[in-house]
Amino acid sequence: KAGVTQTPRYLIKTRGQQVTLSCSPISGHRSVSWYQQTPGQGLQFLFEYFSETQRNKGNFPGRFSGRQFSNSRSEMNVSTLELGDSALYLCASSLGGRGLAGSPADIGQYFGPGTRLTVT
Amino acid sequence: AQKITQTQPGMFVQEKEAVTLDCTYDTSDQSYGLFWYKQPSSGEMIFLIYQGSYDEQNATEGRYSLNFQKARKSANLVISASQLGDSAMYFCAMTLNRDDKIIFGKGTRLHILP
Q: How far is B82 from chain A (nearest CA, A)?
């Protein structure tokens, strides 16, 4: 099975611009979660999509938004970029079922290689 | 609020030695899952091992084992016979039964010395 893919891998944008990042989950996975990783704040949860619906949301401003398509691929958009948005953005896919019963493979979230965004 | 604490920012270990990475967690939920992830310098997060709160036996995956002590709320990762390729950042993480969000600790940077 192919792993989680993210495009682009690297991106340089200017303050005030907007950016769209893409994530293709593992085949059969219906949940896609997005995380922001910075040296200062560590890994922070942005939001999760399951069957094209946002199911969970972290504490980020409305400039951060996302969506999921019928094939489970997800996009994340950041509008009006700020210098502080420079980070590694990771997406993770999982089966998305509720509860913690099952094998580790059923429960685990599998991450993509990330998109490194630099805002200048 | 849920929280993961990793108290070792960095560790240096000789190759072939066993290493224990510490993790404590805080939650009032009775049902939760604990993960360990490895992040090499390339940036990708690699899923290593999982332990459910109701699992009575410690999880093991090859050279990785999770020392789960529920009463102490600790979930330490043990790597046996460390290898140079184990040098990476290691994150302890937790998910609760009611949603799919994962909460991460700050991580421990492990250096394996030849």
A: 23
Element (H, E) at A3: none
Interface of A with B (CB under 8 A): 31, 33, 35, 42-43, 45, 48, 50, 55-56, 58, 88, 90, 92, 94, 96, 98-101, 104, 107-114, 116
Lowest mean pLDDT among A100-114, B66-80, B82-96: A100-114
Query: Model confidence over A53-74: pLDDT tens digits?
Result: 999 899 999 999 999 999 999 9
Name chain B contacts of A34, Cβ cutoff 8 Å.
none
User: Could you tell me the CA-to-CA distances from A40 to A36, A43, A85, A110 in Å, in that order?
Assistant: 11, 9, 12, 23
Mean pLDDT calculated for residue range A110-114: 94
> In the predicted model, is pLDDT for residue B83 greater than 80?
yes
The rounded distance, in Å, linking the Cα atoms of A75 and A23 is 6
